[in-house]
């Protein structure tokens, strides 16, 4: 059995070591040292590869080296090849940590204080207690659920919006397009943790911003293409949106002249909210091998009809 690693080259040694410890019987190869391509049954990739099946005719499972799969053209992948996301609890914990940081930064007016500091102005703002702040999460998946769970003990009024109904202990889950505006209307801070699909592309747009309370904060940790950037810029410039913490952009890195670099109401980070934790990811691969041997369905497979 052979697995080919085609993701971040600087992490390859860590993956090799983790496979060696967990599944020494598995042959680990590292792109571009493919060897006999017919032996490659499992592939770990972050970027799409043209003519995948021509190159690896015996491919069984494509593992996305991350939680998102929007980078792949799902129609290119034959039905017998499974697409699996390498997500685990540690990745969700790291994301929750970032979400807490971003929500607290908006909640405690850190963007204003950065401006004040730059201008040498000592200007305290009124403090709003957490129990008066309404925080909503879009997307109650692996990452959204834990983020919400970790936010709850901080005292915020929390809620969620999801495609299908889900339990949110002590709060409400708004469901589907029909309830989107009702959800938005009660979010002082909105967190996007949706996957990027045709339905969610551009979901953070002028009409979304108009439905939020005036001056609401936005945290985007999903994908850059969830945001219509020119609409966000207008919303920030007019004060419709009070501030944005953006970890993802449509183009990464953005051009030097991109307005978000220097926008006083934007806190920008370079797609670091979370990432794959190698041990957990290797565990998914190995447990899936075991499940395949037992004829059980694989874990973390992507539903191609939904696109996530
Ligand atoms: P999951 O697939 O576990 O969850 C996705 C959630 O979104 C599900 O609850 C799903 O609803 C909901 N959803 C999907 N489409 C819609 C829709 N049209 N309307 C309403 N709800 C919808 O994904 P993860 O939580 O693991 O990851 C989410 C995303 O986070 C990834 O796709 C990736 O883009 C991003 N990410 C960003 C990182 C970063 O560093 N910035 C790191 C890792 C991930 P349902 O329950 O009904 O299926
Ligand atoms: C992911 C990401 O999807 O890092 O894993 O964004």
UniProtKB/TrEMBL annotation:
Keywords on record:
NAD, Oxidoreductase, Pyruvate
- Which CDD domains does the record associate with it? GDH_like_2
EC number(s) recorded for this UniProt protein: 1.1.1.79
Under InterPro entries, the record lists: D-isomer_DH_CS1, D-isomer_DH_NAD-bd, NAD(P)-bd_dom_sf
Gene3D superfamilies per the record? NAD(P)-binding Rossmann-like Domain
What are this entry's molecular-function GO terms?
glyoxylate reductase (NADPH) activity; NAD binding
Q: Where is the D-isomer specific 2-hydroxyacid dehydrogenase NAD-binding domain?
A: 102-273
Which residue stretches, if any, does this entry annotate as coiled coil? Answer: none
**Where do transmembrane segments lie in this chain?**
none
Full protein name: Glyoxylate/hydroxypyruvate reductase A
- The encoding gene is ghrA 1
């Amino acid at each position: 059995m052979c697995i080919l690693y085609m993701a971040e080259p600087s992490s390859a040694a860590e993956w090799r070591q983790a496979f060696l410890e967990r599944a020494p019987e598995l042959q680990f190869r590292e792109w571009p040292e493919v060897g006999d391509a017919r032996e490659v049954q499992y592939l770990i990739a972050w970027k799409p590869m043209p003519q995948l099946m021509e190159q690896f005719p015996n491919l069984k499972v494509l593992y996305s080296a991350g939680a998102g799969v929007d980078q792949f053209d799902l129609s290119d992948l034959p039905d017998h090849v499974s697409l699996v996301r390498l997500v685990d609890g540690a990745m969700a914990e790291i994301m929750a940590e970032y979400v807490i940081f971003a929500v607290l930064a908006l909640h405690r007016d850190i963007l204003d204080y950065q401006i004040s500091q730059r201008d040498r102005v000592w200007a305290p703002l009124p403090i709003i207690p957490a129990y008066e702040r309404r925080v909503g999460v879009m997307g109650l998946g692996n990452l959204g659920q834990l983020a919400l769970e970790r936010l709850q003990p901080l005292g915020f009024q929390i809620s969620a919006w999801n495609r299908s109904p889900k339990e949110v202990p002590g709060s409400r889950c708004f469901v589907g397009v029909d309830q989107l505006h009702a959800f938005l209307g009660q979010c002082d801070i909105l967190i996007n943790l949706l996957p990027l699909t045709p339905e969610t592309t551009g979901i953070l747009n002028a009409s979304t911003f108009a439905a939020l309370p005036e001056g609401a904060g936005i945290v985007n940790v999903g994908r850059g293409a969830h945001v219509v950037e020119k609409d966000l810029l207008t919303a920030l410039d007019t004060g419709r949106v009070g501030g944005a913490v953006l970890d993802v952009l449509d183009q990464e890195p953005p051009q030097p002249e991109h307005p978000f670099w220097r926008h006083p109401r934007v806190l920008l980070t370079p797609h670091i909210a979370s990432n794959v934790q190698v041990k957990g990811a290797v565990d998914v691969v190995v447990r899936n091998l075991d499940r395949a041997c037992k004829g059980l369905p694989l874990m973390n497979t992507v539903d191609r009809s939904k696109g996530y």
